[in-house]
Amino acid sequence: MSELINRWFGRAGRLPGVVAYGLRYPDATVFSNTWEARLSQTVLNELWSRLAPMAGVAAPGETHEMLRWTFNGGVVIGTARTDGPAFFVLASKKVDELDMTGVQRLLSEFRALRG
Fold first, then answer.
1. Is the pLDDT of residue 59 over 70?
2. If I label 18, which of 12, 66, 95, 113 is the partner at 20 to 30 A Cα–Cα?
3. CA gap 38, 3 in Å, rounded
4. Can you say whether the dihedral through the CA atoms of 106, 90, 64, 102 is positive or negative?
5. Residue 50 sits in a domain of what CATH number?
6. Is the pLDDT of residue 72 over 90?
7. How many domains does the chain divide into?
């Protein structure tokens, strides 16, 4: 676990259209940050744990820089670092409300962290 990544995750501010962030390490340590009372830490941590193995393998036409999973209630955008940690953004399905520029900035920052 990286203290630098943990500090960055703790300071990642809420973006328009985003309801939660997730962080998963290769040792299965998981962290969640949400602004939605209806989303429990347990549910979010399970979601990140299930998506993390897929974050290391890009789907056809996608890169490791940004992966996207679409669900009935929203979308998860994620990225994985070469040293194993994965970062996820859970957003509303209303794409017009999502600050995609901000999400891309967060994904880039996460990949660029030295830690």
1. no
2. 113
3. 29
4. negative
5. 3.30.450.30
6. no
7. 1
